[in-house]
Specification:
Elements lengths: L1 H33 L3 H12 L14 H21 L2 H34 L3 H10 L5 H10 L4 H29 L7 H31 L10 H18 L4 H13 L10 H28 L3 H6 L1 H24 L9 H9 L5 H12 L5 H20 L2 H7 L5
Helix pairs in contact: 1-2, 1-11, 2-11, 2-16, 3-6, 3-9, 3-10, 3-11, 4-5, 4-7, 4-13, 5-7, 6-7, 7-8, 8-9, 8-10, 9-10, 13-14, 13-16, 15-16
């Protein structure tokens, strides 16, 4: 009987995966023709396929398979994003990236918390917990958007790098505020900064070491005996970077991003792959990233709880409006404008003000709070989904139009 139920579950998952791939292919093709980012199309089609509409895709948010897809998919997309960055560009804007990924998260969380406190009348510590959850941006959303829309290089790479580096700060802030809300600790800026530095440095070290080893095994003129297995090496290294950093209590997402940067800039470390093998690897990464995007965003859409969203809809829209139109611009101008080395122009700053999609990472944090029965967790999950829907459907779909208006398309 147990074996039979396991087989039925396997068949159910296979059917769901087939539907996701078929629907993702069709909606991705439609998005390409309409010239909008495919993640927005995947999110909409996920809502339509979910249990509250057609009921064709029903995978529980707290199930092991859902968590597996979210973690691995986010890691691989983040690795892909890191591989597209260029070190010479990052050298020019590293001050902005560091500031906006640390101080910027605090500013965004604080402004959003004030809005939640006034719109919902909740305790300020719960409002701050909400602000902390949605303060970090989402690389799984931004990487595919910038893959499809060619934005001025230093702007795109600054926004991408911010989204990769600020997940550690967002997680640290969330769990620090949660400890205070549960009466298990008190907020300490030195302690938070120490945690951030530790997680970041260990994550960077883990990703850098694995990136160098991977480049050695697939692109060294003498030791590249795994060149033909380069796609498999990337899979192993992505998993190793994430799990290794996580085991060291560091940022696994930062580790896979740095791994991608090192492998994508392997020529600067003296490595070079044969053109044929490099083309095969690029095609494999492109296809795998596309499949991961389909699964992540279709599943995310299918798990939207309309009853919960409706309960907090009015207050949630007000909070998200402040979050998008006040907190983000304030964060960008406070953190980027003083960077004299980068010499940001007004059109570049305005673009960064609008481009900060919320997605998988805040969604995962909200899910963790629900599982831990944190104060106000259902409300936080509801408003997090409103933020995800608003930023992806409004900001991601208008990225090309805004970049064109601001003269940032390449």
């Amino acid at each position: 009987m147990e074996a039979s139920s396991a087989i039925e579950l396997a068949k159910h998952l296979l059917a769901s995966f087939g539907i996701i791939l078929a629907a993702g292919t069709i909606s991705g093709f439609a998005a390409q023709k309409l010239r909008v980012p495919d993640v927005a199309a995947f999110l909409v089609i996920g809502i339509l396929l979910g249990p509250q509409c057609a009921g064709l895709v029903d995978i529980a948010p707290d199930s092991a398979i859902n968590q597996l897809i979210l973690i691995f998919g986010s890691c691989y997309i983040l690795f892909d994003g890191g591989a597209t960055l260029r070190l010479n560009v990052l050298k020019e804007v590293w001050v902005t990236i560091t500031t906006i990924a640390t101080l910027g998260v605090l500013v965004t969380a604080g402004v959003t918390a004030v809005a939640a406190y006034y719109f919902l009348g909740i305790p300020f510590i719960v409002a701050l917990l909400l602000g902390s959850v949605i303060a970090s941006t989402d690389p799984a959303t931004l990487v595919p958007v910038f893959k499809q829309i060619r934005i001025r290089e230093r702007v795109a790479q600054t926004v991408l790098s911010e989204s990769a580096f600020n997940d550690a700060m967002g997680a640290i802030l969330t769990f620090t505020v949660l400890a205070v809300a549960l009466g298990q600790g008190e907020f300490s800026i030195p302690h938070a900064l120490h945690d951030l530095a530790q997680q970041s440095l260990l994550g960077i070290a883990a990703g850098g070491i694995l990136g160098y080893l991977a480049a050695l095994l697939i692109a060294h003129e003498k030791y590249d005996f795994l060149a033909e297995y380069a796609p498999v090496v990337t899979l192993m290294a992505v998993l190793g970077a994430y799990l290794g950093a996580d085991g060291l209590h560091a940022s696994g997402f930062m580790a896979v991003f740095v791994f991608g940067i090192v492998l994508g800039n392997k020529e600067r470390f003296g490595f070079a792959m044969p053109q044929e093998e490099a083309a095969k690897l690029d095609e494999y990464i492109l296809t795998t990233s596309l499949i991961m995007r389909m699964f992540i965003f279709i599943l995310l859409g299918s798990q939207v709880d309309f009853a919960l969203i409706q309960r907090y809809l009015v207050g949630g829209i007000g909070i998200v409006a402040v979050f998008m139109l006040v907190a983000r611009p304030l964060t960008v101008f406070l953190c980027a404008l003083p960077d004299r080395r980068a010499q940001w122009k007004t059109n570049e700053l305005l673009f960064m003000c609008w481009t900060r999609e919320t997605g998988v990472i805040p969604g995962a944090l909200a899910g963790l709070l629900v599982g831990m029965k944190a104060p106000g967790a259902p409300m936080i999950a509801s408003i997090t989904f409103i933020a995800i829907l608003a930023t992806i459907l409004l900001q991601a779909t208008t990225t090309r139009w805004l970049a064109k208006k601001l003269g940032l398309l390449e």
